[in-house]
Structure formats: structure tokens, C-alpha cells
């Protein structure tokens, strides 16, 4: 049994709530799909928890932006990347600075991760964005209708199951192509690996599917369960408003999950 989390975006209230929920289910292994930082007000605390609690974290585009440069970011995302970098660099404790930068640097070498599910003959891939472009390709639900060739091309690169984040929209893509939300699935995807699937676990720290609860998924007995967790989003939003270098919109969107 293991949990998959993604897109924390420096939201310590959401991350703490999710980790508590994972612990309550007796889940000991956690895999992270990146974007630990960006947008939110608590990058240090989120990095510390991801370093402590997860088995590994693959690289997200916001993690890359903080370490190098934001590319093709909107104004708010770019502002957050620069603020996060400066905030981490201004840390007076040299050991902490080195720990965070080393961890982000290690992610550069880990754009994807593959593991074999023990109970069945299935390979599971973990990436931030897509199996084709692990860091920054968006895979949207509407793509199954508007860009079916894109979905087919992505599935050509999937052996069995691929977990993704990046769009902050949880659900399951199938090879048909088709897409099902967690609600349509009854909150779980039944059996691995009856068919290929690309599974988006949603976002811990910035949901965008009009449900402002934190999102993650876990695998138990070869089934994928989608979970939503309430957290104190007002507290997170207030901290964003108090930091001039962060766009107020990044706090406002937490109220509506958009």
C-alpha cells in the first residue's frame, strides 16, 4: 500500500492535513510527483516534510523554476518562483540551505521513476506532467475530445500505469481515449493492470476542479483510491496576502478550488 501526492505548492496546511490522513490509513510509503514549491507561503516547511516523509520526489516545473528560471510562467507563478528562491537563499542556517538546495538539485536527476507492483505483473511510472514530457506537458481532460492523437501518443509511452499531476485535476485517462473523474468512478479505479491508464492524483496544495479540499490518491490491493481532505485554506490564503511578492490571486483561488 502506498500514497501518491503532487503539487503541494508550499501549502503547509494542506500538506499536513494530507499526511495526517495518510497516516490514519496506515500507509507508510509516500511518493511525490513534484511541485513541492511555488505559489504558496511555506516552501521551507513543505520541503522539510517531503524530505522526511516521502520515499522519493520527481521533479516538477515549479521546482525546476526555483532552482533555475521560470519558463513560460504567468506573472503570479513567476513572482512566486523568484520569491521562493530568495526566501530559501536568505535562510541563515547554512545546513538548512544546503539541505533544501541539494534536494531540489537531486530532483533534476529524477524526472521520472518506475517501480513494479509486487502483486501483479505491472510497471508503474511516476512523473510530474506526462510520460512524454515529464516536467511540463499538460494533459487535460478535454484532450480526449480535442486532441485524441495526443492522448494516443502518450499511451504509446505507457506500459501499464502512469501517475501524473501538473494540471491539478484528478481522474483517470484510458486508452480509448477517455477520461473519468473520481466522482464518475465512485472514487476509485478498480483493478491494475486490466488496461493501460494515466492517473492524475490531483493537487494537495492548490486544487483546480472546483473542490477546494486537498487531493491525493493511494493504492491498496491493486486498486487506486482518490481522497479529498479538508484543511484550513483561509489560513494559507491569509499568509499569501501578507507577502507582497506573492500574487493575491494565489490565495483567492484556494477558496473555490480553481
From TrEMBL:
The protein, known as: Phosphodiesterase
Database matches in Pfam families: Metallophos_2 (PF12850)
UniProt organism field: Anaerohalosphaera lusitana
Listed SUPFAM superfamilies: Metallo-dependent phosphatases
InterPro entries tied to this protein: Ap4A_hydrolase, Calcineurin-like_PHP_lpxH, Metallo-depent_PP-like, Pesterase_MJ0912
UniProt cross-references to CDD domains, sorted A to Z: MPP_superfamily
Domain Calcineurin-like phosphoesterase: 2-220
GO cellular component terms listed in the entry, alphabetical order: cytoplasm
Amino acid at each position: 500500500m502506498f500514497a501518491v501526492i503532487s503539487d503541494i505548492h508550499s501549502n503547509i496546511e494542506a500538506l499536513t492535513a494530507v499526511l495526517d490522513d495518510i497516516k490514519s490509513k496506515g500507509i507508510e510509503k509516500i511518493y511525490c510527483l513534484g511541485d513541492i514549491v511555488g505559489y504558496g507561503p511555506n516552501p521551507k516547511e513543505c520541503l522539510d516534510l517531503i524530505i522526511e516523509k516521502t520515499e522519493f520526489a520527481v521533479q516538477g516545473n515549479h521546482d525546476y523554476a526555483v532552482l533555475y528560471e521560470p519558463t513560460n510562467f504567468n506573472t503570479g507563478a513567476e513572482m512566486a518562483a523568484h520569491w521562493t528562491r530568495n526566501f530559501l537563499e536568505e535562510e541563515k542556517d547554512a545546513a538548512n540551505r544546503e539541505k533544501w538546495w541539494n534536494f531540489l538539485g537531486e530532483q533534476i536527476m529524477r524526472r521520472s521513476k518506475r517501480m513494479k507492483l509486487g502483486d501483479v505483473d505491472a510497471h508503474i511510472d511516476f512523473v510530474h506532467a506526462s510520460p512524454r514530457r515529464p516536467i511540463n506537458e499538460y494533459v487535460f481532460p478535454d484532450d480526449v475530445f480535442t486532441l485524441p492523437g495526443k492522448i494516443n501518443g502518450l499511451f504509446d509511452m505507457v506500459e501499464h500505469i502512469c501517475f501524473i499531476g501538473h494540471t491539478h485535476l484528478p481522474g483517470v485517462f484510458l486508452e480509448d481515449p477517455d477520461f473519468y473523474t473520481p466522482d464518475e468512478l465512485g472514487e476509485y479505479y478498480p483493478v491494475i493492470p486490466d488496461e493501460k491508464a494515466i492517473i492524475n492524483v490531483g493537487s494537495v496544495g492548490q486544487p483546480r476542479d472546483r473542490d477546494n479540499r486537498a487531493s491525493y490518491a493511494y493504492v491498496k490491493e491493486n486498486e487506486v483510491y482518490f481522497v479529498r481532505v479538508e484543511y484550513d485554506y483561509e489560513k494559507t490564503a491569509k499568509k499569501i496576502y501578507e507577502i507582497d511578492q506573492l500574487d493575491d490571486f494565489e490565495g483567492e483561488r484556494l477558496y473555490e478550488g480553481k
